[in-house]
Target: 2-keto-4-pentenoate hydratase
Amino acid sequence: MTDAVEALIEARETRNWLAALPNPPADKAQAYAIQDEVARRLGPVTAWKVGAPAPDAEPFRAPINAATVFEGIDRLPASLFQVIGVEAEIAYRFARDLPPRDEPWTREEVLDAVASVHPAWEVVDTRFAGFGSQDPLSHMADQFNHGVLVVGPAIADWRKLDPLAESVTLEVDGETKVETVGGNSAGDPVRLLVWMANVGARSLDGIHAGDVITTGSCTGTVFVEPGSRSVARYGTMGTLELTVD
Model:
């Protein structure tokens, strides 16, 4: 595991992208252990990404460090990225801690711990020489392809939000790329938050007050070029814009 951690850290520092991981993970537990150790090395964890390939599938997660969380901005430098894959998402900020405990956190307890809900961008990236070039466990070990998280403004009356009915249109340079309603493959994002409280965040001492959890793409990934302007238009959550140049 140490070799893989060192390789991922070095790739971030030098931008010499990896042909493969030395001693790649053999299972999810090893992939998560690599994720966690890289996160510890990179600094404070203030956010998470979580998703699932289907409404009844086991979720997956990755910790996100403070250095790649942005708020109140609509522009990022292209130099941050190797590839630029934009995803319109729904993110939840927590008002209080949900530490690991023997009794599972209930759905109601998890929702009561939420402070606000936000439209968000995740920009996906890779530390490998080619997006999608590795086996799934290696990509999982590499922070599940996280690049940056851009958190939009809090929405009013977030408890009235129905993510399964929320429409999202993604435009790039004025061209509509995706139009969807409830487009998250995981289905109900609240089940992902409950899983995070009880399983996903345990290895890093649970969810902390102020943490943001982004719950997977509503639009899929749209790869864009430097200089592009992306616009996500949500049905009830407003509009989010991002230029990467």
In short: The mean pLDDT is 97.
